[in-house]
Design goal:
Blueprint (H helix, E strand, L loop, with lengths): L7 E6 L28 H9 L8 E6 L3 H7 L8 E4 L5 H15 L4 E6 L3 E2 L2 H16 L3 E7 L9 E10 L2 E8 L4 H10 L2 E11 H11 L1 H11 L7 H8 L8 H9 L7 E6 L4 E2 L4 H8 L12 E4 L5 E4 L4 E4 L4 E5 L4 E5 L6 H10 L7
Parallel strand pairs: 1-2, 1-4, 2-3, 6-10, 12-14, 13-15
Antiparallel strand pairs: 4-9, 5-11, 6-9, 7-8, 7-9, 8-10, 15-16
Helix pairs in contact: 3-6, 3-7, 3-9, 6-7, 6-9, 7-8
């Protein structure tokens, strides 16, 4: 069944800062607005691979005031009213709730497909086929569908989905969700064959999501419902800025998905294994892994020379780069900052941003 016939709306979450990509990523130029693996930015790639499934009028991007102007420039076909700026970040549950109330007002049967704005998908054809399957299940009833990635290592930074019995086709029933387990637990999960990574891509009717939001986060539901009554009215922006900062900051994983598998009367929850060449590109080390064709390759700018150097990622837009006798480094140069770290410490780059914030270095944020 074509996804367009299912009235699927693509809700793309694009409010994150991408602090682990400093100094290239900044407050007004976050990771999703960068071209890390090609000519298109991450959010442009996200929209391009979804456009065959839904028209531009069914795209909704949830972002913030700092990023919204650039997003509208990068996605010129997106109606301006469908780039929604949160006054303040409140994690994924309120963001999806806001989108659900907007969509329900337009279409009582709307199915939401929720997508991160900054991931890489290598096999786009299989990806779209999987999305169509997920949307079909979500439209068929009070169902929640999540795409799962089979783990190839013990990763503590991802949520895990324990799959149960086969439900229909390739869809499996979900036994439980576990967010970011300890390393010892992640090793067990990765080796068992019964778990998938939660890649943050979900499908549900807007009405199904809001019913669950009301069940598990009633105060957030009530506040967003009140806000929804003002959609299209002159006081909407004022109410948005008054109500939104008071909402609980919580992810949809903790607030909706985990409880949905534990409580009686909850909707059916399914996982579809997605063999699509997925990567969340969570750090400079992940960029290296994406771009390196062979182990030990250097990823260098065009104007560069290397001698007895292996496994390095050097990023510079304006300077000649020479690498001599160094291995496994990340070096990122901008006009006002220089990052140097071992590739294995790339996850710690976010701590630099935290230090800059604590020391009020707004010029570097």
């Amino acid at each position: 069944m074509p996804t367009e016939a299912l009235t699927v709306h693509a809700v793309i979450l694009a409010g994150g800062r991408g602090t682990r990509f400093w100094p290239l990523s900044r407050k007004r130029r976050a990771k999703q607005l960068l071209a890390l693996d090609g000519k298109q930015t991450m959010i442009q790639q996200t929209v391009a691979r979804l456009l065959p499934l839904a028209s531009a009028k069914r795209f909704w991007i949830i972002t913030n005031d700092d990023l919204r102007p650039t997003i509208l420039k990068q996605i010129p076909k997106l109606p301006k009213t469908q780039a929604i700026a949160e006054p303040i970040g409140r994690n994924t549950a309120p963001a999806i709730g806001l989108a659900a109330f907007l969509l329900l007002r337009q279409d009582p049967d709307a199915v939401i497909g929720m997508f991160p704005s900054d991931h890489v998908i290598a096999d786009e054809k299989s990806y779209r086929t999987t999305i169509e399957r997920g949307a079909e299940i979500a439209a068929a009833g009070e169902n929640i569908v999540v795409l799962g990635i089979r783990p190839n290592r013990a990763e503590t930074g991802y949520g895990y989905i324990e799959a149960g019995s086969l439900a229909s086709g390739d869809a499996l029933r979900v036994r439980r969700f576990t967010e970011k387990p300890a390393l010892s637990v992640a090793k067990v999960y990765a080796g068992s064959g019964d778990y998938h990574w939660n890649a943050g891509m979900f499908f549900w009717r807007a009405s199904t999501f809001l019913e669950n939001l009301d069940r598990h986060l009633p105060k957030t539901f009530a506040a967003l419902e009140s806000l929804g009554e003002s959609i299209g009215k002159s006081n909407y922006e004022r109410k948005l800025r008054a109500i939104y900062p008071k909402l609980q900051s919580i992810s949809v994983d903790y607030s909706i998905l985990e409880p949905a598998t534990r409580q009686p009367g909850a909707p059916s929850v399914f996982v579809i294994p997605a063999e699509v060449g997925w990567s969340d590109i969570g750090s400079w080390a992940a960029v290296y892994e994406l771009l390196a064709k062979h182990p030990g390759d250097n990823i260098l700018p065009r104007d560069a020379y290397s001698l007895d150097a292996r496994g390095n990622l050097f990023w510079s837009s304006s300077k000649f780069v020479a690498a001599v006798g160094v291995n496994d480094l990340v070096v990122v140069e901008t006009t006002d900052a220089l990052l140097i770290c071992p590739r294995e410490r790339a996850q710690d780059v976010g701590k630099v941003v935290k230090w800059l914030e604590e020391n009020r270095r707004k010029d570097l944020l």
